[in-house]
Amino acid sequence: MASLFRRKKQPQTEEERLFAEYRKLEKRTQALSNGIKSWKTSQLNLCKGQNKMSSCLKQVSKIGLDPSALTRCVDLITTQRHKMLDDVRLTTQASMQRLHSLFNNMNGATKKRAQAKSEADSLKKKVDKYYNQYPIPIEKYKNAVKLHKDATERHSKAHDNLLNDLRCISKGKYDFFEPCLESLLLAQLTYYKRVWKTLEPAIQEVSSTETLSTASNMERLRSLSIVTGPQNNLKAKMMSRKSVKAPSPLS
How far is the C-alpha of 150 from the C-alpha of 116, rounded, in Å? Predict the structure, then answer.
């Protein structure tokens, strides 16, 4: 029964629809801008961590590995990360800032239109006030009518300009955002390709060195007397004990 008396939702006018899209776009743009700032902060923290790791790699020489190649790789990765951040700043973040300035202009135009409407409404009340007086103050009435007409024209012009701007934003929002996101993804893709190109030789070198070190350690282990001597004797004794049959309880 409640659904029968539910008030039907009125269809949105063009102005309401455009303003709803605009507010949503403004909100999502701010969220994207904040997300990029947080991402940049995390990238800078990674740079600090890499610098600490570079200093810690000096201890690698204690286990027989040359730390110079690894340190050089870490330095190159840090440089590439800073380059990626610069690319994002010059492309995506610069575009976001231009879009924010557009939002500021649109919000200013919205306030200007509201002020023009308020002024026109106030002058309309003054026109009605003079018209209802007896006798009508002709000069004041004519002056109020003229001022009201000018205010109405200003409001109408501000309203039309605002709607035209909103239509342009509604049509061009995807054309604006696609290059911004594309530049952000391209900067990250380029960074990871360069990092892999930098790390691949070092990974192969470290892997081969580690394999040789592991093989030599295994040879040393096999040569120890505890492996070749006593362990084999203990194994032989255990096998001989298993081969001895237990006496039967009936014998």
Answer: 10
Is residue 77 packed enough to be buried (19+ CB in 10 Å), middle (13-18) or exposed (0-12)? buried
Give the 3-state secondary structure of residue 87: helix
User: If you search the block for the tokens 């629809």, which residue do you land on?
Assistant: 17
Contact 91, 183 (CB under 8 A): yes
pLDDT at 220: 64
What are 31-52's pLDDT values in tens digits?
Answer: 888 888 898 899 888 888 877 8
Q: Which residues contact 15 (CB under 8 A, 6 or more apart)?
A: 163, 166
Q: How far apart are CA 83 and CA 79, in angstroms?
A: 6
- Euclidean distance between CA atoms 159 and 101, whole angstroms: 20
Rounded to whole angstroms, the Cα distance separating 41 from 62 reads 34
Tell me the one-letter amino acid at 186.
L
User: What is the token pair recorded at 12?
Assistant: 């949105």
CA atoms within 13 A on the CB side of 223: 6
Reference 78, options 54, 106, 107; nearest CA is 54
Question: Cβ of 205: how many Cβ atoms within 10 Å?
Answer: 15
C-alpha distance from residue 134 to each of 123, 131, 138, 142, 145 (Å): 19, 8, 10, 15, 17
Residue 118 token pair = 């308020």
Cβ-proximal residues to 159 (8 Å cutoff; 6+ apart), any chain: 113
